[in-house]
Request: fold
Amino acid sequence: MVVSLDIDRTDESAVRPAWQRARAFFSTPPGRLVAWLGILGLLGLLVGTWGLARKAVVFGLAEEAPLALAAVGFALLYRLTGIINVAYSETVTLGAYFGMWFNTTFGWNFYLSLIPAALGAGVVSVITYFAFFRPAHRRSVGVVEVIILSFGLSIVLRYGLQLIFGHEQRYFKVPFQNPIRILGLGVPPFRVTALAGVIAGALILYWFIQKTRLGIQIRALAGDEKLAQVSGINPLAVTVLIWFIAGLAGGAAGAFYGVGATARPLLGWSKFLYILLAVLVGGAKGLRGVIIAGLGMGVLLSGLTLAIKGQGLYSEILVVVLFIVILKLRGNRMSEAAKV
Amino acid sequence: MSLDWLSAFLIYALFTVAGTVGMAQFLHLQMGLAGIGNFGIVGFFGLGMYTYGVFIRRIPWPDAMGDILPFVISMLAAVVVTALAGMLIGWFISDLDGDGVLVGTLGFATVVYSLALSEKRWTGGAEGMAVTDPVGFGTKGNSLFWLGLMLLLVVAATYYVARVHRSPYGRLLVAIGQNEPLARSLGKPTFGIKLSLFAIGSAGMGLIGAIFAVMNHFIRPTEIGIEVTLAVMVGLVLGGSARVWGAVVGVLLTAGLFDIVVQIYLPLPDSWYQITLPVVREMVFGAMLILVLLWRPLGVLGDMRRDKLVARLGRG
Reply:
């Protein structure tokens, strides 16, 4: 028996966090006025900069839609198993590579190659659970140590891919299609179907977790493992299912990213920070929040890139700083770890 | 005394290893004692490097000041700027859990990298910029001088860490790492401690980065990739993140073994050195992180007496 020195941190401070105080302010009459003025101002901004806002919304949603799907998968893992898996970025990368492999070598249609991409990434995700995260859990490795462990795993997978496939970027073989016009802007059809597929996938996941029997079992396991066990839930099967679904989402997102641009070893890692930010910022509102945060991040990224002429790096810096500031203001100590 | 056996390769490898040990010592305070997983090491390293470069290159120093004074001022600037950045990050992560710390430090490193690429007017963008060597002992003499300086810095850092281990400050860091709410409820200023911890650690990493800039004669964004963070972290974790000598032993076993023994003395085909070896190096480091954390989480040096004490209390 080891003495546990853990203290429940949920109601540690009597001072309410900043966002709660802000919410209290917005429910008073002057606060309401401020809120309405703010909404009106935002609408005015949207109308005033319609040329820019239109492009930002269309391109942002079309290009960064996979981010929302990847974030949903990561959020499932994070909220249900409590693990921050840095190697999730490699799940995304592997999805792109599996898709590209079936697409180019076997000449499969892109939509068909999505299936092996998602399945392959899901299987790899389960394998990593059995090989590394389950032993780590059994040896009660600490939270920070698990992050470092997954960081090491991410490095091994990433450089392993580099060793096998080399540095160069690889392309999917897809036929040229005429752009579709949305709001007067030309968008490649693949991006549109990707967006539709991503939103559909995210909604299916949301429905699955919220409404189905298995989804309820998954959430029960995250809420209280022992209680779930005595209720007849098989923790191992459910945990494997979580890892598999997270892998599916990550792999599909990777394939969509890959067909939109290229498959490369650094693909997942270059998106990891955004996935993490979307999950931490949006996660307080459950999976819906994660989807909204992921899509909103895409719109912001492309909007800022358009506003600051051609300087993509500035928009990335601004978005990272903005989301980190939001995180700081809200405080990321979520009381209900299993609220998905 | 003949120094012929000390080739330019060897000097540079020793220099890199020493710098990694230095950074691992500062990470030891943050991660080993206070339990804060800093994933933005390369951000502080790079910020120091670039601050030095921007100061020495972009300020029109008058000729009357000579070479040394601008060098000293730029070095000081690098230390001050990274210390301030460290305080900012320390403030940001002060009330966040492991995930918030990960995103904060990783985000910081990303921002530094992106700024280095995008601010072409100041940093030279992707091509980077050259910096001159302020001392004049000849090519080999200069590198030996910077190697000596780095070794001195590492000795000082190790001495400082050893002192911290025996001081109330060190015990407070351990308390924060084990149970922060408890430390705070006992009236300990945990917020200020975290701030000062990050200011000192970052300043140290920034100073090491600035010395790297001088030794390399060139500053490029490729120098501040994730590999730096990985090398420091794997060294510390392998050696033992709770021990004073863990960083030294671990880095010698990882970067020391790889960069000195494998790179210089093993008779491998030339093409390997260009492409395969750097990739294999990172893979081995990553695998080492996994293996150590699964099978020997406290590193080769093992645990501290403190942990035995906690275990005994648990049994009793």
Observations:
- Residues 1-12, 334-340 of chain A have pLDDT under 50 and may be disordered.
- Chain A touches chain B through 52 residues (CB under 8 Å).
- Strands of chain A lie at 180-182, 185-187.
- Residues 68-173+180-268 of chain A form one domain.
